[in-house]
């Protein structure tokens, strides 16, 4: 059978799919593909995760995931396993959704990718389509993945197996919704590879926009998307620091600058980071010999937690022994993911100063309860703009703390009658 026969097999929904890596990207994707009619096997090396998933329980918080997971399991079209051989051997399409974190000295840690490629090879890749959804630095498919697969199998990419980069761009917390709605960028090694993956994603939503580019173009498109956001956040943070220097309030200024002006969409200043934004730009920057705007943005965003701690220290004096409650530990609002979280960094810095830190995050069970956090704090720092925190102004004001630091500007300063109020970007 020629490779092009896979196009029809995928279009008709008869193709078997394997998703390698049931993390924040892989699990929602596997479930959505199963609910779109494919027979899907999800593989993960984490035994606990696999058994939880097979019980219909989402191992992390994601809107709509648990209900979609239960539907997928009860339809008989989805199961998870730690045994990669069967899943890979029987699959027509294999999607790699393993992690690509940064390792020491900021180089990309490809250990998960290499292990996953070995698993893929163990099940055979002849007449299969391999799609990479993980974030990769430019040239990874051409210079690392294809040589690895061709070298170990003796097969030819584009002829004996299809391969494409289809970067994932969903937002944690909106994964299910966005898997149906976001356009898909397909960077196949050839037209057959493009067509196979286009058919796969059109089954999720026939109206889905499919955009084609090269594998390297797709790798770059993903990085450009996140760098664009990250640099904008850094700029907003720089505006915050300038506003403070001039004794003004960045929030007010950004609001008036944006209002009714179509060419200005300055984001709010705050803590920018997380497992994607905090590292993706460095995949590019770390592979160039010159210092780019990415490193400047990274330096700025990464310095904000220290900047906040120093602002507080200048206001109240020594932090040693102070009871400081930090509300929010996740890397952004509405989720339970703490990877590369700037709030976690802020907590680490406060502990380094010798403060007695109590952390409360309503999305993270291993943190203190809100009552405990608001029992006689000397300082309260609201570091994540979780929606639940918007209603806490009065309780914080009545907690007896001397100072509230509102990182995201979620409160009206007038809400605080007893407590001093500080906000990142407010120089008054
Ligand atoms: N989290 C996001 O919001 C997001 C958004 C877009 C893109 N991405 C990218 O997608 C990729 C995955 O990110 P994530 O957040 O889902 O990571 P994750 O760490 O949540 O998931 C990775 C999963 O792969 C599993 N795994 C590792 N090695 C394996 C192997 N050899 N075989 C089977 N399973 C294995 C891990 O146990 C884990 O469950 C990364 O490249 C990331 O940069 C993430």
Features:
alpha/beta; Rossmann fold; five-stranded parallel sheet; 16 helices; 13 strands; 13% strand
Strand elements, count: 13
* Biggest β-sheet strands, sense, barrel: 8 strands, mixed
- How much helix is in the residues? 40-55%
Encode the helix/strand succession as letters.
Answer: HEHEHHEHEHEHEHEHEHHHHEHEHEHEE
If helices are DSSP runs of H or I spanning 4 or more residues, what is the number of helices? 16
State the end-to-end CA separation.
72 Å
**Major beta sheet, strand line-up:** 3-2-1-4-5-6-7-8
Residue stretches low in confidence (pLDDT < 50, at least 5 long) are: none
Number of domains: 2
The CATH topology label of the largest domain is: Rossmann fold
**Rg result:** 24 Å
What is the architecture of the largest domain at the second tier of CATH?
3-Layer(aba) Sandwich
Task: Determine the CATH superfamily of the largest domain.
Answer: NAD(P)-binding Rossmann-like Domain
CATH class of the largest domain: Alpha Beta
Q: Which ligands accompany this protein?
A: nicotinamide-adenine-dinucleotide
Shape: elongated
Query: Which whole number gives the mean pLDDT?
Result: 96
Strand content: 5-15%
